[in-house]
């Protein structure tokens, strides 16, 4: 320390980054040593963290992954294909709904199933405690689940300095109080909370909106097709096949939830619009959004998916066939569109003409149109794949790498 600047500062910053409180400090007159007092339970973490900070030549990032399902498994494969000479990524824990496994030396991203099979029963509390009290300096929670319960731990881990990366929309679309609490927790723990894939898979929808707001632009209107499932449904529904037949094909291709009513009720789109509204600075709750439920009233009480399809064929095909015919007679197409303007948020099936940016969508494409003070005459349009595990995983990976 006597001849090298910043040694004591590095030590104390490292301890602070790991939420280790210093009770007392003493430095010898020779300036060759420094002593400090901490809680006994933090001793091992403090020694390891300081050692890593001073002697590590390549930064190491410890990943705690929850939900190695469709998106999570693609993410693990993509991590396995990375070449990162300037930093190291180490998967130290994986948990699904049944089992979890911890490995200090790291879990190979292409062999995680083998590790998980020999793991212990899943316990979210123990998983969080292990993560919070880990000796690793850089800890990142990646939540690829769709769990409300997991989303509720974000504030605790962020406040403890753990970064969070997630495609899970549940946290940002929960109560406004919790939305704000997450930002405060991230600031307190000096951690990053990244969720680009909450809307539009890997499309730069949220990053762009934040950039517009941060640079002083005024958002006057947000409009878009935010569901890959419903985009595919209405892009393919052109009158050659019935509405129920197109929906069955979407389900066969894996675009819908096991129960298609979970897509047709519009709540997933409403959550995404709510997130965009909040990112634009509007203090909205879910109850502030007007949502058109696409499930016909007579189909909502069906007790099975098979019964739902039967009722949809009896009631929905005629109804949607009539709406499609009305639109086509005007030269329009049907699109399920989310709109935000002047604090009014709506999600509804609309007729749009050829001048609308969503008119020419294909497949499961998403589109978001930002009209702002700067982008007024010619709005800013973001368009591309809005669904798919592989592209969503790539978006999660991009968020992860922005931390490293």
Structure description:
With 404 residues, the chain is α/β, with parallel strands linked by helices. Helices cover 40% and strands 20% of the residues. The chain is built from 15 helices and 15 strands. The strands form three sheets. The chain has a seven-stranded mixed beta sheet, with helices on both faces. The protein is elongated, with a radius of gyration of 25 Å.
Which secondary structure elements does this structure contain, and how are they paired or packed?
Layout: H1 7-17, E1 24-27, E2 34-37, H2 43-55, E3 60-66, H3 70-80, E4 88-95, E5 99-102, H4 112-117, E6 120-121, H5 124-132, E7 138-143, H6 148-151, H7 154-159, E8 163-165, H8 176-189, E9 193-194, H9 205-214, E10 219-225, H10 228-236, H11 243-252, H12 261-264, H13 267-279, E11 289-291, H14 305-329, E12 333-341, E13 344-352, E14 365-372, E15 380-385, H15 389-403
Parallel strand pairs: 3-4, 3-7, 7-8, 8-9, 11-13
Antiparallel strand pairs: 1-2, 4-5, 5-6, 10-12, 10-14, 12-13, 14-15
